[in-house]
Design a protein that fits this description.
2 helices
Length: 46
């Protein structure tokens, strides 16, 4: 989880967001991060 967030922060700081490949990776990591947090919330409830 921490490593994914670290990668996301590194990508946010990148100036080459115009590169479609990097943008796609960032998008994928962002959705993965949201998915992981959703699973954790569900585990806490149940």
């Amino acid at each position: 989880m921490y490593t994914i967030q670290k990668i996301l922060n590194d990508l946010m700081q990148e100036k080459t967001l115009k590169n479609p490949r990097i943008a796609r990776i960032k998008h994928r990591v962002f959705y993965h991060l949201r998915y992981m947090t959703r699973i954790q919330k569900r585990k806490k409830k149940g």
